[in-house]
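Objective 1b: paired records.
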Amino acid sequence: MDVIQGAKERARAEVAQAIKEQAREHLATEGPGRLSLRAVARELGMVSSALYRYFPSRDDLLTALIVDAYDAIGRAAESAYGEAGDAPAWETWQTVCAAVRAWALAHPHEYALIYGSPVPGYDAPQDTVAPASRVALVLLNVLETAHRAGTLTLTETGGEADAAAVLSPDVHGLLAGRDLPASAVTAAAAAWAQLFGLVSFEVLGQFNRVIEDREALFAQGARALARQVGLSPQT
């Protein structure tokens, strides 16, 4: 009985994956705002009622694609962090940033789904929060390593109480047990936003006819962000 159940679960997972792959192709040609379950079902040779057994609504399918995209870019950052090993935090920060950019350039439509314009009528559920945090948590890992080594130098003068007041209760819960001052977390949050601003300008075309050597610009930006969060070539 377990063998039969396992075969059914594998078959269901394979069909769900096929649906998502087709939906990604649809995103590339039509954009997320025009994602249609009926169109995806038609391309797969399925009746739409069968597809609804896997994804009851367009929003359910969008959520699955969004979670997959966040997980994929998160894995890219985590892999880069792991491969950096004992490299100085200054270098590791730049390695992680470069991995984020590389993933985005290789998957522009998936990147646009999570960091482009909001999809009309779609409200992201709580299920997307943890996957969306993966890159940020890797960046915090880099800072925590430097802080423990005594090489993190923050220039924020507002004080830890002011920095802590900026953070939401959810973030405070996420940081429980971490050896990292609140001022480092707020600095990381600002750098996180700027990192994705740099990536988004490149992926979504704002640098067209403005910046010629985008890789060099990004490298300069990543170094500037490293300094901004308290890292230096000596760390």
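Objective 1b, second protein:
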Amino acid sequence: MAKKENLHKSLEVYYEKVDSCPIRDRQFNFFEFVYVISGKGSYAINGNDLPFTAGDLFLITPKDCHAFELGCTCEFMIVRFAPSYVKAYNWQSIDHIECLLYYSSHLSGSILVNTDDRLTVASLIDAIQRAVEQKNIYNEDLLRHLVNAIIVIAARNISITKPERLSPNADVRMLKILDYIQEHICCPDRMKISAIAQEFGVSPTYLGSYFRKQCNESIQQYISTYRIRQIEHRLRFSDRRVHEIAEEFGFADESHINKFFKRHKGVSLKAYRVSLQA
């Protein structure tokens, strides 16, 4: 059974140099960033084993069960923060940031997928480490600003949602198509295959075969899966009523969105929301 840990402050930051994971199969009631300063090994989360190396950033969410298997002496920077910490901050540019963080555990490995962001986070972690060691005046305020920057970068990387079976050799045009779908998922007219094909200057037939070759699934399947995920986000992280969610995603009414949602999840939106409160 997983050992549960609680957080007694809204934000905790500390440096750790270890030869082995002190506690295995841990489960938190808070978020935890684990940045690998040096070393390598494997990271187990919710039954999945993933390799790690220096420069990787992992985000453990509340209820995740995890452990680290160290291949040598490793250095980590640990940042822990409560869900209330995320809610209290007035984020300006990223909507549903708490929602994005909660859904990080579906990612394979480090949450940093952008090369430039890896460099930025490395600099931020270095600044955090110096702040932790020096403990100067206004140290807590400085740490909060640095941590907030990492939270935004993490959320931005998590939001780059790609199909699980996306080819590692996917080209730039494929990534632009995915970005287009995610940006316009609430606009049914722009989600038509003909509209997407026109946007990228190809025929609908070519788009369909090209997408399947790059992602090993149909473009219609990806659009449906992504739309379902966004609807789940609204049900879990907002107080919007079903008819408001239906309007947001371009459905004619509640019955249409319920029919779509039930086809994929087996329950109505209301039943799904109730199950989250059980």
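The beta strands are 3-5, 11-18, 26-28, 31-38, 40-45, 48-53, 57-60, 65-70, 74-81. The mean pLDDT is 84.
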